[in-house]
Design goal:
The protein is mainly beta. Helices cover about 10% and strands about 15% of the residues. The longest helix has 28 residues.
């Protein structure tokens, strides 16, 4: 009898190790360990700390919702035809996948028994309403994907622990003060494909959002560059909008910006000095607009490496359009400049115009065809 007990303990310990290894593989696959931790945790209460207890051996005996696939702390219910969040989701679930269903509402009690939830995917449903208390019991949620639903506004009372929020392809017409209240860890915001204009972004909408580094507001109705976004942005994507000009003060507060996408707009003019506020800019997309000349501020950007200007109305290239006259000003050479699809006669361009481009294939030219 004693031998049987010892063998049972050994088997149980072995099973626990196996579950932990599988869970670590899941975390690695979803880049959970790669998230930036808070730089200063002294002001974070114990309730805000990220603690995901290790799965126990008896996790093998949970019940899985019908039409779902359950692994260790991962529940996959995508493409199952659900019209509501299924019941009996295991309490220890860390990732819940409900993509591509027909869910039209997240009710107050749908997620109440999921305190360890880390990632929630609700992409491509028919959600038009989320109860204000739906996330009340979730304290550790980091990834929330609500893309391609019917939400008319940013849901109220989202978990303040969120690192990445994707809510593109909805029907949001206004970004209001309080929409991101308390979300001091938010790093990534994808809000493209919503019908709001620049004037629909309230001045204080992003108050308190201190670590937001990536914003994508593509495929919308923006008529100008928003001036009230967080100042510490690293990447800003405003492509496929209705922006008609870049004014001098548009980028004054975004001094840390490294990537900027303004392609597929209606930009006719980039005002002199407007890009000079972006000393760290590495890449800028200005293709597929109606710009008539190379923006004057481009040559002042010491670290700019990639410049996309194809499919515009540029008819002439001056010898100092890309490179400063002073040889010591340009810190990094261009790795690529695209100019094809412009009415410029490439045989009239002086070779010295590209003196600060590295490599023979760094410039892309082509015949202009209407």
């Amino acid at each position: 009898m004693k031998t049987l007990v010892i063998l049972s303990i050994v088997a149980l310990s072995s099973a626990t190790s196996l579950f932990e290894n599988e869970f670590l593989h899941f975390l690695k696959d979803w880049d959970i360990w790669q998230q930036d931790p808070p730089q200063n945790t002294s002001d974070i209460s114990q309730s805000e700390q990220i603690t995901i207890p290790a799965p126990t051996a008896d996790y093998r005996f949970f019940t899985c919702p019908l039409n779902c696939v359950c692994q260790v702390r991962v529940v996959q219910c995508s493409d199952a035809g659900f019209k509501s969040v299924p019941a009996n989701i295991p309490k220890g679930t860390v990732m819940l996948d409900l993509q591509n269903n027909k869910i039209n509402e997240i009710k107050e009690g749908d997620l109440k028994n999921l305190p360890s939830l880390y990632a929630l995917f609700l992409v491509n449903n028919q959600i038009s309403k989320i109860h204000p208390k739906a996330f009340r019991s979730i304290k550790h949620l980091k990834l929330l994907y609500l893309s391609w639903n019917l939400l008319p506004q940013i849901p109220n009372n989202l978990p303040t622990s969120i690192l990445e929020l994707r809510i593109d392809g909805n029907e949001i017409k206004k970004i209001q003060k309080g929409d991101f209240q308390g979300m001091k860890f938010l790093h990534v915001l994808e809000i493209s494909g919503n019908p709001f204009d620049t004037t629909d972004i309230e001045p204080d909408a992003f108050n308190g959002v201190q670590r937001l580094m990536y914003i994508r507001m593509s495929e919308g109705k923006l008529s100008s560059v928003p001036k009230n976004l967080p100042s510490n942005l690293y990447e800003l994507y405003l492509d496929h909008n209705r922006i008609s000009s870049i004014e001098r003060e548009d980028f004054r507060q975004y001094k840390d910006l490294c990537r900027l996408d303004l392609s597929y707009n209606k930009i006719k003019e980039v005002e002199n000095g407007s890009l000079a506020y972006l000393p760290n800019l590495r890449l800028i997309h200005l293709e597929n607009n109606i710009i008539k000349k190379v923006p004057a501020s481009v040559k002042e950007l010491k670290y700019l490496q990639a410049l996309y200007l194809h499919n515009n109305n540029i008819s002439k290239i001056e010898v100092d359009d890309f490179c400063p006259k002073e040889s010591g000003m340009k810190k990094l050479h261009y790795s690529g400049i695209s100019l094809f699809g412009n009415p410029v006669k490439y045989w009239e361009i002086q070779p010295a115009s590209f003196r600060c481009v590295s490599g023979a294939h760094g410039v892309q030219l082509g015949n202009f065809k209407k």
